[in-house]
Amino acid sequence: MRDDKPVFEKRCLEELKAEHASYIRQHLDLRAMMADFLQFLLLRKPPTDPGVPFNTSSP
Q1: Taking the complete model, does pTM exceed 0.70, yes or no?
Q2: How many domains would you assign to the chain?
Q3: What's the pLDDT tens digit per position in 19-57?
Q4: Residues 37, 31: contact at Cβ < 8 Å?
Q5: Is residue 59 part of a domain?
Q6: Distance between CA atoms of residues 53 and 19, nearest Å
Q7: How far, in Å, CA of 16 to CA of 11, rounded?
């Protein structure tokens, strides 16, 4: 049985950070989607009783 796991080359952290920043700058819609998602998370209020589990499903 062969192990078909993908193999990734090792790259320095600074190179990865630079590529990530460049990708985000080139895809302005991605930045807007991330901002909307984070705003959605921050505006949701958890239950007042810490013993009640937080419902993540949509109504």
Answers
A1: no
A2: 1
A3: 999 999 999 899 899 999 999 988 887 666 666 666 666
A4: no
A5: no
A6: 38
A7: 7
